[in-house]
Amino acid sequence: LADWKWQWQQVACFASYKNLYFFCDSVAQALVPVGCCCKRATYLQIPKHIYLSIYFISREVKDHLNYEHRVFNSEEFLKTRAVGDQPFYRKVLETYMFHSFLKARLNRKMDAFARLELSTQSEEDRLNLMFRIPRRMTTEKMASKQMNSQSVMNRRMVISMPDLQDIKLPEIPPRNSSFRRVETGIGKGRMSLKMPPKSVSTFKIPEIHFPLMYQCVHSYYTEFFNHLSKAINTLPPDKSALLARYFYLRGLISLMQGKLLNALSDFQNLDKTDLRIFPTDLVRKIVETMPPSERFQADRKPELKRLISRVMEKQREVTKIDDHVKNFALPKTHMQLDDFVKRIQESGIVRDKDTIHRLFDALTVGHQKQIDPETFRDFYNYWKETEAEAQEVNLPPAVIEHLDKNECVYKLSCSVKTNYGVGKIALTQKRLFLLTEGGRPGYVHIAAFRDIEDVKVTTVAFLLLKIPTLRIATRSKKEVFEANLKTECDLWHLIVKEMWAGKKMADDHKDPQYIQQALTNVLLMDAVVGALQSSKSIYAASKLSYFDRMKNEVPMMVPKTTSETLKHKINPSAGETFPQAIDVLLYTPGHLDSTERPDSAHPKLWCALNEGKVVVFDASTWSIQQHCFRMGRCRLTCMVMVEQSQVWIGSQDSIIYIINTHSMSCNKQLNDHRSDITDIVVEKKNGIPSEAYSSSLDGTVIAWNISTLKVNRAFQLPCQNLTSIKLHNDQLWCCTGSCILVMSTYEFRLQMKIDYHLKDLRSYFLCFQLFPEVLNLNLWASYSGSSDLYIWNTKDFTSMPQKIHLQDCSEITCMIQVKNQLWVGSSGTSQGKTKGKIYVISAEKKTVEKELVGHADTVRALCSAEDRYVLSGAGKEEGKIAIWKVE
Question: Where does the record place the dDENN domain (predicted)?
Answer without folding.
Answer: 42-105
